[in-house]
Each structure stands twice: as C-alpha cells, then as structure tokens.
Amino acid sequence: MTKKYTLQCSQPTYSDLGEEQNLLPLFHENEEQTKNVWERKRETLTKRWEKVIGKPSFTYDPKDIEILEKFEQPDYFGTLCKQSTGPFNKQLVLIMEPKKPAANPRPGAIVPFYHPDTMSGFDLNNKKVIEDAKAVQFGLHLVRQGYVAVCTEAFPFNTVPEPAENKGFTWWRAASEKLLLDNPQWTGIGKLIWDTSRGVDLLLRLENIDPNRIVIIGHSLGGKMAFCTAAFDERITAVVASDFGIGWDFTNWDDIWYFGKQIHDEDFRLQNHQLLAMIAPRPFLLIAGLYDKPESWQYINEAKKVYKIYQKEDHVGMVDHATGHRPTMDAMGIAYRWLAEQFDFPFKEWKD
Fold first, then answer.
1. Which residues are bridge partners to 206 per DSSP?
2. What is the second-level CATH architecture of the domain 4-15+23-343?
3. Domain-by-domain residue ranges, the chain?
4. pLDDT tens for residues 92-121?
5. Which of 269, 299, 305, 315 is the most exposed place for a label (fewest CB within 10 A)?
C-alpha cells in the first residue's frame, strides 16, 4: 500500500534550499556506502557526541515513582506523578491513557516540554482545560488517536527553587549552573536527554504498551529534547520534532542548558545532520515554521544517504507550514497521518 503522507513529506516543495550550510560529509569521497561501513561510522560518531555531551557524576538507577493524584478527563485517564531522575531530583510526569479499552498493545508517546500542562492541554494546578495553543497539545492529540502519552517536565523546574527575581530564563540559568556545579563533566543537553529517557523507562513499564511503536514528539525546546534523545535511545522508534532549529545558528544551542559555548570552538566539528543520521533508519519528521526553514532540508538530504542504505530514504522528511514558530493544526494533521503510516496504526479523523 502506498504511504501517501510518507511520500508527501519526503521531498521539499521548493527548489531553493537557502544559504549553504557547509555540512561535513558523512562518507569520504569514493567510500563504500554500505550498512557495515555506516555502522562502524555510527559507533565512532556516537562516541564523539557522547564525549561532547558528557556524563553525570552520580551512578544511579532511578526507578522510584511517587503517584500524586489520578483524575479523569473526557478523552483519558490521567495519572500525575513524580519520577526520580537522580539522587536528589524528581521530575513531574503526567501519564495519559485513553479511556477506550484496547484489544492489542497500544503505541506510546514521550512528550517532553517545560511542563506537562502545555502538552496535555490541562492546567494541573487549577484543574482546568487550557483553551489556547491547541496546536501544540501533542499529548492530548495522541491520546485521542489511541496512544498512551507520557508528558515530562524539563529539569530547571525540579533542580532549584524558583528565583525571587524570575525574569526571562533566570530559572533556567540558575538550574543549569547548579547542575554543572554538581556534575562538572556533564552538559545541560545531557541532563535533558537523561531525564527524557527516564520517561521512556516509565512508559515501557506500563501495561499493554507496544515497544515497537514508541514515538517521541516535541515542540521548540521539546523538539530539541526529542531529536537528541532519539539519537541515543534506540527504544524510540519514531520522531516528530517541531521547529527546534536543526542548525547550530538557527536557535540558542549555545545556551548553558543545551551544549554551551563549546559549539563555537574552532576545533568543534560536530553538526546535527550527524545526529539525524544516527537516528536512521527510524522514521523522522521535522515540522518547520520559523527556526526550521528551507535550509533544514540540507540536513535531511545529507542524512538521507544513510536512510538510503536501509532502503528507507522516504522515512525522513519535513513539512513546512512557514507561518511562524508554533505549528498549525493542518501541519499537525499531516504529522499524525504520517505517524500512523509509520506505525501501521489506524488514523482517527482529525479534530482540535
């Protein structure tokens, strides 16, 4: 059966792909492009990236879950909990499970962001539906499609108390400084990846989850978390990332809560098409709008050389709504139809 949306998203709709990104080749000139060659290269690349990302100072196997409350909404049963992510930290997590019983194991979704509220469309403090920003309520969207969604919290909000003068990214900076003081060989992006993978742990421990259908989906910061986590966590079987800015100079990758200023060093030789190639052959869809743009296709096209080795070159692509940072409802409708094709899972007619 032809996968309509897979094919639709696999090629740009415009010929001008913008300013040249000068991406380093994944293969040397005249080098054989085979699975064996790539898998050796992938192992080397992974080690290089892991060195840049760093590692925590603690040795810890966090499994503790503290259930805070359970509640019911029209589309799902919610379980709000705190999940241990280290010796002293617990992240807030909302588990959203469809009400309708499932005869077969359900697909699962990891949905990282600042707080679970935005992605679930539910204000957890005031116990009310969030009426705005409906296009980014990814957890709610996927529960309505029949997925179990796990919405996770970003580390700054559980690392240090809210600063008295909390303006802009003050809280993020304070938490990142504390993180790096305690873990001098780590990075902010390393912590974000670590915590998001703990969400995968939780999801896969739930009953009736299909481990072959685990998508990670995120917007902006959450898109960065989805993209980077998937490159290192092979339990994730598909990725949808919205407008996170794949190029180093597209957004704020050099902030302390991501990679920091090391990406500007003269001898820094890593680029994000390498991470995308490390995700191959798992399906990847980029939703572009503002920070991702025609230039983002250059990263996708370079990574396609690896997808092609696996005969999956159509399974990496982009939909560009070009209307601003937040996705449109139409763009998300395409993304969910694309995802349904990857998972051979029925698509339920789209609604907001």
1. none
2. 3-Layer(aba) Sandwich (3.40)
3. 4-15+23-343
4. 999 999 999 898 999 999 999 999 999 999
5. 269
What's the half-sphere exposure (Cβ side, CA atoms, 13 Å) at 164? 0
pLDDT at 1: 57
- Reading the block at residue 76, the tokens are 């799902």
CB 246 within 8 A of CB 292: yes
β strands within 47-156, DSSP E: 65-73, 76-84, 90-98, 106-113, 122-123, 128-129, 148-153
β-bridge pairing 122-123 and 65-73: unpaired
Kindly report whether the global pTM for this prediction surpasses the value 0.85: yes
- pLDDT at residue 183, as a whole number: 97
Helices 35-53 and 188-205: crossing angle in degrees, nearest 10, is 120
Alpha helix (H) residue ranges in the chain? 4-9, 35-53, 116-120, 138-145, 156-159, 170-182, 188-205, 221-232, 272-279, 296-309, 329-343
d(CA 12, CA 64): 45
Torsion of CA 213, 327, 141, 112, to 10 degrees: 60
Between CA 338 and CA 258 the distance in angstroms is: 29
Span 282-329, pLDDT tens digits: 999 999 999 999 999 999 999 999 999 999 999 999 999 999 999 999
